[in-house]
Design brief:
With 79 residues, the protein is mostly helical. 84% of the residues lie in helices and 0% in strands. The chain has helices spanning 3-29, 34-53, 59-77. The N and C termini lie far apart (45 Å). The mean pLDDT is 91.
Length: 79
C-alpha cells in the first residue's frame, strides 16, 4: 500500500470510528441488539488503527470495550 494511502487512511479512520462509536451508543440506547455487533466491528477497526499507527496506549481501551461489547451481545442473545 502506498504511503500516501496509509496517511490518508490514518487521518480518516478516526473520524469513521468516532461516528461508528456514536451510532453504537445511539443504537444501544434504543435497545437494539445490532449495537453490539456494530460495536465489535468498530473495535476491529480500532485494533487495526492502534497497530498501524503504533498508538499502544489505546490498546487497553480497545480490549476492555471489545470485552464489554462481546459480553453484552451474548447477554442480549441469551433466551
Amino acid at each position: 500500500m502506498s504511503e500516501s494511502l496509509l496517511d490518508a487512511a490514518s487521518k480518516a479512520l478516526p473520524w469513521v470510528m468516532s461516528a461508528l462509536t456514536i451510532w453504537t451508543m445511539y443504537l444501544a440506547g434504543n435497545k437494539a441488539r445490532l449495537a453490539w455487533q456494530i460495536g465489535l466491528g468498530n473495535q476491529a477497526l480500532w485494533a487495526i488503527f492502534i497497530v498501524t499507527t503504533h498508538q499502544w496506549g489505546l490498546a487497553p481501551m480497545c480490549a476492555a470495550i471489545t470485552f464489554v461489547y462481546a459480553r453484552n451481545l451474548l447477554k442480549w442473545s441469551a433466551p
